[in-house]
């Protein structure tokens, strides 16, 4: 199956199963690894800060309203930028169907789950639990045989360490909170991580589209889903949000969504799904640090131990130690 999209009369296409752009594969000069790693770190910082901004806004703005405002503002901004760059959005129904699912997996569903989860747990803990997409990516590859990926003992060890880290974080943290909504909130954030794992796999089919076009299309679809939901279930016109909450949502929309999505879809094309997902452990570290610095959040030893295991697991999954040994 082929996806097609037009930009000023030029038709481009990419196979559904494409893992990354052909240009980045065939011409190493077009793929600057240092630049891509730098962008991955920047994306991790931006998305790590989103947990702090959500925590600032969530008491005044409910989850669906926050998510709908975030994706709607981002969509408008991205469409404007695409127009200024003289890029047209796709017209084919098949492309928009794929973008609809991308918007659901990458934004509408995980943003809502994380926003609701942070009503009951700290931003730092949410960031730790949201460090698990690389584990889910590899588990999906193991179960489905996605792209015929060869699974090594190192991969399995990394997944095991990461999952133990999640269990340590959840188990110790939840024992005293079983009578509250905290365990369900933690499960919601893990559900968002699963979405973030599937999203870059699905998003690789847009490799031939400019990143700004893919981001604008996906955010438009997310807004189409979320705005009606917020209007029906949360009646946002009855809210009286604080100036701080409004400012936090604007930052979430402009920086953590619009800007981040352009970087994200570039990295999906250059680093692939597992490489892009590997930035999650950096995101967790930033989320924890920013929560402690700006929100005064505490962090107990069990959560810290779980985070270290998750980070170690992601490193084991993503770093090709055998290849580095050969080069050495």
Describe the protein's architecture and organization.
By secondary structure, the protein is mainly alpha-helical. The chain contains 13 helices and 2 strands; from the N terminus they run E-E-H-H-H-H-H-H-H-H-H-H-H-H-H. It has a two-stranded antiparallel ribbon. A hairpin with a 2-residue loop joins strand 1 and strand 2. Helix 4 packs antiparallel against helix 8 and helix 6 packs across helix 10. It is globular and about 55 Å long. It starts with a strand and ends with a helix. The N terminus is likely disordered.
Shape: globular
Considering DSSP H and I runs of 4 or more, what fraction of the residues is helical? over 70%
Radius of gyration: 19 Å
Order of helices and strands: EEHHHHHHHHHHHHH
Largest sheet: 2 strands, antiparallel
Work out the strand percent.
under 5%
**End-to-end distance, in Å?**
42 Å
**Helices and strands: which structural class?**
mainly alpha
Mean pLDDT: 81
Order of strands across the main sheet: 1-2
The stretches of 5 or more residues where confidence is low (pLDDT under 50) are: 1-29
User: How many E strands?
Assistant: 2
The total of helices stands at: 13
């Amino acid at each position: 199956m082929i996806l097609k999209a037009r930009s000023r009369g030029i038709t481009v296409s990419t196979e559904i199963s494409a893992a990354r752009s052909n240009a980045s594969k065939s011409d190493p000069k077009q793929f600057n690894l240092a630049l891509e790693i730098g962008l991955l770190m920047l994306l991790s910082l931006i998305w790590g800060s989103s947990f702090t901004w959500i925590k600032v806004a969530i008491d005044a703005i409910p989850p669906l309203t926050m998510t709908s405002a975030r994706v709607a503002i981002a969509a408008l901004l991205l469409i404007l930028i695409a127009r200024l760059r003289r890029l047209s959005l796709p017209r084919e129904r098949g492309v928009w169907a794929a973008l609809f699912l991308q918007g659901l997996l990458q934004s509408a569903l995980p943003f809502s789950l994380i926003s609701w989860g942070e009503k009951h747990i700290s931003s730092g803990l949410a960031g730790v639990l949201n460090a698990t997409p690389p584990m889910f990516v590899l588990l999906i590859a193991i179960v489905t045989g996605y792209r015929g990926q060869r699974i090594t003992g190192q991969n399995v060890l990394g997944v095991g360490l990461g999952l133990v880290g999640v269990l340590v974080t959840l188990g110790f943290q939840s024992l005293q909170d079983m009578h509250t909504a905290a365990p369900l909130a933690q499960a919601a954030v893990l559900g968002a991580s699963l979405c973030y794992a599937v999203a870059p796999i699905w998003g690789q089919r847009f490799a031939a589209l400019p990143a700004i076009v893919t981001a604008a299309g996906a955010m438009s679809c997310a807004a189409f889903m979320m705005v009606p939901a917020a209007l029906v279930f949360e009646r946002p016109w009855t809210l009286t949000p604080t100036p701080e909450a409004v400012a936090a949502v604007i930052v979430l929309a402009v920086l953590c969504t619009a800007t981040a999505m352009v970087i994200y879809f570039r990295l999906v094309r250059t680093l692939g799904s597992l490489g892009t997902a590997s930035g999650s452990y950096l995101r967790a570290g930033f989320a924890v640090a920013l929560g402690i610095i700006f929100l005064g959040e505490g962090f107990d030893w069990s959560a810290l131990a779980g985070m270290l295991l998750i980070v170690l697991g992601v490193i084991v999954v993503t770093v090709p130690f055998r290849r580095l040994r050969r080069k050495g």
